[in-house]
Amino acid sequence: MSSQPGYVTLPILTVLAAIGYLYYTTVFVVIGEWLGIATAAGLANAAAFTALAAASLVTYAMAVFTDPGRVPASFVPDVEDPDSPIHEIKRKGGDLRYCQKCSHYKPPRAHHCRVCKRCVLRMDHHCIWINNCVGHENYKIFLVFVFYAVIACIYSMVLLLGSASQNLQKDQQPSGDSSRTSIIVCGVLLCPLTLALTILLGWHIYLILQNKTTIEYHEGVRAMWLAEKVGNVYRHPYNLGVYENLVSVLGPNIFCWVCPISKNIGSGLRFRTSYDIPLSTPPL
């Protein structure tokens, strides 16, 4: 299969298969045999889990097919622009960052992806599970997908444990070997998946609170070490404070933070920095 962004690959099929299997087992096996889908409790739980599964599936598809944001070929940094206090330069030579592969300058926070073979605005990382880069235009969508996936996994785990506890109390086994096998496989799949997704969500929440990308985090560790080596203090230039950092990624409307369709702030060619904030209100 093609590895180009937007194309279906084996990891994507694996994710879709996992979502389908967990949905079927949770709704038709766990809820169906424990509460009964026809009951009020069973119908309510089935509807709630279906909504979470649908939200996960829709946001996943959006993360796969949404372009992360490409650097315009015509982009040229204006070093005399007073509204742009930061111009990122190469580590060696001190020249403005220029991509030899794409033949154009790179704005701040943009990086070239070797897999996608293009420069991506505010690139965080390339994710094989969506066969796409996570960048300025789809970072929030990716984050919202992980959020819904974590909630859905935890919900499924609670239902699975509730069903198992009920069976143990009544000293019963799920009806049929196929049902028992499905529940066991579901539990084995859910445990590492829930843990991995929860860690991933926590990691990106930490990055958002610092207004960093994954690449900037690793670069910052090295920059901090070099700064301390010469007696200086490293300060991440894009850290605007907790609330402003959240707004810069999730949007100004707090009620739309878990909504994947709200627009991104800015073009991705320039970002506010701590130098834009008055000294009386330092970043948290």
What order do the helices and strands come in, and which of them pair?
Elements: H1 10-34, H2 40-65, E1 98-99, E2 104-105, E3 111-113, E4 118-120, E5 125-127, E6 132-134, H3 139-169, H4 177-210, H5 214-229, H6 242-250
Helix pairs in contact: 1-2, 1-3, 1-4, 2-3, 3-4
Descriptive notes:
There is one protein chain. The protein is mostly helical and 284 residues long. It has one domain (10-276). 50% of the residues lie in helices and 6% in strands. The chain contains 6 helices and 6 strands. It has helices at residues 10-34, 40-65, 139-169, 177-210, 214-229, 242-250, and strands at 98-99, 104-105, 111-113, 118-120, 125-127, 132-134. The chain has a two-stranded antiparallel ribbon. A two-stranded antiparallel ribbon has the order 3-4. A two-stranded antiparallel ribbon has the order 5-6. Strand 5 and strand 6 form a beta hairpin. Helix 3 packs antiparallel against helix 4. The longest helix has 34 residues, at 177-210. It is elongated. Residues 279-284 have low confidence and may be disordered. Pfam families: DHHC. Its EC number is 2.3.1.225. InterPro entries: Palmitoyltrfase_DHHC, PFA4/ZDH16/20/ERF2-like. It catalyses: L-cysteinyl-[protein] + hexadecanoyl-CoA = S-hexadecanoyl-L-cysteinyl-[protein] + CoA. Its main location: membrane.
